[in-house]
Description:
The complex is a heterodimer of chains A (395) and B (106).
Chain A: E1 3-6, H1 10-21, E2 28-32, H2 47-50, H3 63-66, E3 71-75, E4 78-82, E5 87-90, E6 93-96, E7 99-102, E8 106-108, E9 121-122, H4 127-136, E10 142-146, H5 150-158, E11 165-169, H6 181-190, E12 194-196, E13 201-205, E14 210-213, E15 216-219, E16 222-225, E17 229-231, H7 234-238, E18 247-248, E19 260-262, E20 267-271, E21 276-278, H8 283-297, E22 309-314, E23 317-323, E24 330-336, E25 341-347, E26 350-357, H9 360-372, H10 377-383, H11 386-394
Parallel strand pairs in A: 1-2, 1-7, 2-3, 7-19, 9-16, 10-11, 10-16, 11-12, 18-20
Antiparallel strand pairs in A: 4-5, 5-6, 8-17, 13-14, 14-15, 20-21, 22-23, 23-26, 24-25, 25-26
Helix pairs in contact in A: 1-8, 9-11, 10-11
Chain B: E1 3-7, E2 13-17, H1 24-31, E3 50-53, H2 66-72, E4 82-84, E5 98-101
Amino acid sequence: MNIGIVGAGQAACTLIAELVRGxxxxxxxxxxxxxxxxxxxxxxxKTWLHNPTDSELIRLLPEPIETHASLEWIQDHVxxxxxxxxxxxxKHGRRTVDHIVLATGTRAxxxxxxxxxxxxxxxxxxxxxxxxxxxALDAAYNIVIIGAGFLxxxxxxxxxxxxxxxxxxxxxxxxxxxxxxxxxDRLLEETPASVRVGVTIERYDQDSTSLITNHGPxxxxxxIVAIGAEPNTELAIACGLGTSEGIPTDPLMQTTxxxxxxxxxxxxxxxxxxxKVMRIESISEAxxxxxxxxxxxxxxxxxFKATPWFWSDQGKLKLQIAGLAARNDEETCLIDTQTERxxxxxxxxxxxxxxxxxxxxxxxxxxRLFEQGSISHKALLQAxxxxxxxxxxxx
Amino acid sequence: MPQLTCVDPNEQAINVAFEPGETxxxxxxxxxxxGILAECGGGCSCATCHVILTSDWEGxxxxxxLQEADMLSFAVDSTPQSRLACQVQxxxxxxxxxxxxxxxxx
Lengths: 395, 106
């Protein structure tokens, strides 16, 4: 069986690595629409942006896998797929395979701001985005980051410089709304940016090089839009396999067409941890969905069962999250010392996530406990730490 | 260029040339050593770039940070010589030394 993978990001590369290691017998065609060999995205807003050197350093696949004889790399932008015929059509040619894998990922959402010249606006999603941003930094003393999520604050931290003023402007009522107030506060203590919430941007004034907002003018030589991502589902929509919300799959990553699977941030499937159909943007989702598909293609299917996890670095602060909370889940602070802070997110007694700031042991213990099953809020409070609860569950 | 010898999970010994200043992860990845997953891309967040150093490394490295030590305590079959490849910066003293990739990262 020959397969064609559309995309060459984290999910595609995990699938490739697992198929090669599992001695997949067919040919694997990989359509890479970017002009770089596969690279890691997390460093783009973190260490690499701070000091971009050789893109080899963030290469995603080890050499023996990337150059394995079963792989054919095709540098092309896919314009359509024909599931019944197994056709993948790129700008430069058509190929026919037995199975199509959509690993098209997401793209940065953009924001139209009246009067703002295109060369002053940046997003961060790809390696070339990061390179462009870095080139523009020399002339940027007043940087505005629009958005209130991890990306906005990682960028603020990576761009910190004595000659730069960094401002984060957010539309909502608070920064970092996806995490608890207590964990968000810990991150906000570290940020070099001044943060303003409840901001509506009206337009950009070129004469004063400022964004005009409902809070008055904000100086901006350079604007970075970090307001989230949206899935690349156009190929799937065109053949009835998806919507702008994502590409629905079953727990084996199969779409509604037997010859097409979808993995990574575009796939919309039941998350067993939450018992809810949703799309998750994280490395863990990319890896776990790709592993699930690899097992199926290698003839040993096992349904998707992973619990998502996330992390964000800001200078010396590392926030790690096991699980995923809904925005209105309750929060209880479990540990709060000078260095560590651990917050439980829960819905009644059902723990949905553990947010650990500079508390790696608690984070790893939470991942292990979630792998074993659900976590009781009451039991966790009694144990005093996630690590103690894990230990008592093992004894 | 200085070199390391890296024993991968299939017991293959691979020569890994490195630039002083880069991490074990960067050097082994470029050399194509198998078995180091590094899911988080070198962010000390996943404990899937677990390597085991030989005693020859003693005295050439600072002790792991608290964060690294905490992550390592959850690595599969962690030993006192275990490190996360993303956190160990190489220098000239490491020329000629040997390390092993953990058999399993999960």
